Amino acid sequence: MSLEKFLNQALSSWMSSEGPDSDIILSSRIRLARNLRNYKFPTLFSNEEAREIIHKINETIQVHAFRDYGALEFLEIDGLKDLQKRVLVEKYLISPRLAEQATHGAVFLSEKEDVSVMINEEDHIRIQCLYPGLQIMEALERASKIDDLLEEHVDYAFDEQFGYLTTCPTNVGTGLRASVMVHLPALILTRQMNQIIPAINQLGLVVRGIYGEGSEALGNIFQISNQITLGKSEEDIVGDLIGVVHQIVAQERAAREALVKTSNIQLEDKVFRSYGILANCRIIETKEAAECLSDVRLGIDTGYITHLSRNILNELMILTQPGFLQQYAGGPLRPVERDIKRAALIRERLKLEEKRTGGD
């Protein structure tokens, strides 16, 4: 396994599989925040303490029982170029915050890229597990096993009253952030999202963009996650999230059925116009590409388009991001050059898929 493997393949192995409700739910993610006892939090620790933490976790992961998850590749963030870090963020393998760390950050990545253990991000340890579709409980089970393995060999900062202690007070307690990434084009087209988001917030959940806090909801893709980590068990937090997500999935499906029934020709026209843009454009920006890819994915899910798979759309959503485009091109590109390269790459990928499937 090498750094190039993580950088050169847009589609992580786990993304190639479909899970429950994959037509709407792209992925499920569990993230556990942990800190080591007797060390300052990353906002206050010294360079020496940061290096000690990396060494301690590295020794624990490399030496002890992580065989069930395969070898975990160790990458020091300091040793990566800015473009390489950006690609890892676009693939959801590290957080934007870890990429921005000036010194002493690191990450352990599994071969399938479904397990990521970030070191010295906002907290000393952040365990992340990713699954396709709605498999949030499965992701929790796996993250908990990794957490237990680590806790056998390191001493966590834990308080009997408050639970796991974290840098940000909103993570104190379980240290759990559970999230699902959903594609909701019909709720956007029918203008229902403006009413749904406040209702979700009232239930202790939050709706964010494609890369989490502070990011934009490109291509009608949203992250829904818990806000409360204190006073509830991990199972209760995840159970509440699953209940809300089931309702959103039902509303999105109902909205899609209504669009097909009442606006069939308009929806079909929108889908194929977007497909035409992607198949023929010579220059396209990130936002427009994401919107067109969202329309085409909706066309696949509603049966208008039959010669493309959802995986192609998943791949292109990542492959057309600025960092990955420049990695693909072999070096930095000016914005207009990225837009030209993005258009060429999309055309090339769609033609390859059409040849493979025999589509028109």
Average pLDDT taken over every residue: 89
How many helices? The count is 13
Using only C-alpha atoms, the radius of gyration works out to 21 Å
Major sheet: arrangement of strands: 2-3-4-5-1-8-10-9
Strand content: 15-25%
What is the CA-CA span between the terminal residues? 38 Å
Write the layout of secondary structure elements.
Layout (H helix, E strand, L loop, with lengths): L2 H6 L16 E10 L12 H17 L8 E5 L5 H9 L5 H5 L5 E5 L4 E5 L5 E8 L3 H16 L6 E2 L3 E2 L11 E8 L1 H5 L3 H10 L2 E4 L12 E6 L7 H29 L1 H17 L5 H16 L8 H10 L2 H8 L5 H23 L3
InterPro entries: Arg_Kinase (IPR023660), ATP-guanido_PTrfase (IPR000749), ATP-guanido_PTrfase_AS (IPR022415), ATP-guanido_PTrfase_cat (IPR022414), Gln_synth/guanido_kin_cat_dom (IPR014746)
Family: Belongs to the ATP:guanido phosphotransferase family.
Keywords: Allosteric enzyme, ATP-binding, Kinase, Nucleotide-binding, Transferase
